[in-house]
Amino acid sequence: MSIPAPAARSVNAPPILQQPFRPLFLCAALAASLGIFTWALFLHLGLLPASSLPPLAWHGHEMLFGFAGALVAGFLLTAVAEWTKLATFTPASLVLLLAVWLAARVLFLLPARVPYALTAFLDCGYFGLLLLMVARPIIKSRNRRNYFVIGLLSAFTLADVAFHLSVTGVIHVAERSVLYWVIDLFTVLMLSIGGRVIPFFTARRLSHATVQRYRWLDWSVNGGAALLVLLDIVWPESALLATVSLAVALLVLLRWWLWQPWKAWREPMLWVLHLGYLWLAAGLALRGAALLSSALPEITALHAITVGALGSLSIGMMTRIALGHTGRAMAAGPFMAAAFVLVSVAAVLRLINTPGLLPVASVLWALAFAIYFLRFLPLMFAPRLG
User: Fold this and answer.
1) CA distance linking residue 127 with residue 344, whole number of Å
2) How confident is the model at residue 8 (pLDDT cuts 50, 70, 90)?
3) pLDDT at res. 41
4) What is the domain range of residue 71?
């Protein structure tokens, strides 16, 4: 996947600001590694943060709106430039976006010095600014196929507003319910974007793979995932939500099987994406089972989506985009291949959900993204090759 230079780069800026994924993916990797490592200290050593949020709410919010917020920005600002052939940023707007994101992350840990309203304003303002940067080129180019991206980003922004209104008691909705809804939104995003790019990358790389796609299946998966978002608002923790979740899991598994993922096992850049998509099927199935039985907590099941699917798909796409859009060879290398494995091992250990394994899962997940940060830090400051 390549991006035309005029739409994707600002050649009069230093390399780190020439392409939006460069600083944003570094921020995402740093937030993932330090955020989870800090959470492990909070959870297992009792070193609770001096945060303006309760510990569990801080953890959920910073993983979904902090780490994943930077990840989504880096991906969409890069991808929308390719889809529309229009610039999504200037160096100044990118610096502003980064500054707002970083300020919110820091201010959450300075509750005694900063009014919560200011922190919440900056946090929500980040998504509002990102929405404007993404929506303008999509609307201007009349890129109707990707109007759904504007809808999803608008939903993320509204969810962040709802989260802060919940924390301050303005609305009577549990913070956990808002975070679950955001996981649903990420599920929609991963299913829809993954359903486009994973079979495309597989077919292009593996000539011996016969990738099969059916329009009815694509519509069923994406429509089912959208229905989950609605049901989680109207009938949370219901048998209907469980049934739809199980049905979508089966459809996702069928879709994944038709891509012939077993033929990608020699290609880390491919199998990490297939593995992430398989984690989506597993997470949806486990959530459905959790809602129908008390044997597995729903929050544990959802970690198959956040730790397994989001972790694998994010680190896989961050690696692919960083290499491809800086002109480097599309090869993971041993360190990144190891990081890909660590993410899934961490997800498995998190699902086992025993006190002795939880800190191990946290450390492994943090280590995977620390490897990414250290591996790509020099590259993000280096000029593009070619």
Assistant:
1) 29
2) low
3) 78
4) 1-173
* Strand, coil or helix: 75: helix
d(CA 336, CA 332): 5
Identify the pLDDT of residue 9. 61
Give the N- to C-terminal CA distance of the chain in Å, as an integer.
15
The reply to whether the predicted model has a pTM over 0.70 is: yes
**Token digits for 309?**
């699917």
Mean pLDDT across 349-354:
92
Q: 294 in a domain, yes or no?
A: yes
Please check whether residues 227 and 166 belong to one and the same domain: no
Nearest to 164 by CA among 69, 57, 55: 57
Cα–Cα distance measured from residue 6 to residue 10, given in angstroms and rounded to the nearest whole number? 7
Q: 5 pLDDT exceeds 60?
A: no
Two tokens at 161? 């507003």
- C-alpha closest to that of 227 among 242, 209, 206, 205: 242
Query: 206: left (phi > 0), else alpha (psi -120 to 50), else beta?
Result: beta
Burial profile 175-189: b = 16 or more Cβ within 10 angstroms, e = fewer: bebbbbbbbbbbbbb
Distance (Å, rounded) from C-alpha 145 to C-alpha 353?
40
351-354 long-range contacts, CB within 8 A, separation 24+: 351/286, 351/300, 351/301, 351/303, 351/304, 353/297, 353/300
DSSP 141: T
Number of domains in the chain: 2
Q: Which helix (H) or strand (E) holds 266?
A: none
Express each pLDDT in 28-59 by its tens digit.
999 999 988 888 777 767 666 677 788 888 99
Question: Which tokens belong to 91?
Answer: 């160096």
Choose the final residue of a domain: 108, 138, 173.
Answer: 173
Q: Is residue 52 within 8 Å of residue 116, measured between CB atoms?
A: yes
Per-residue DSSP letter, 109: T
Q: By C-alpha distance, which of 173, 176, 172 is closest to 184?
A: 176
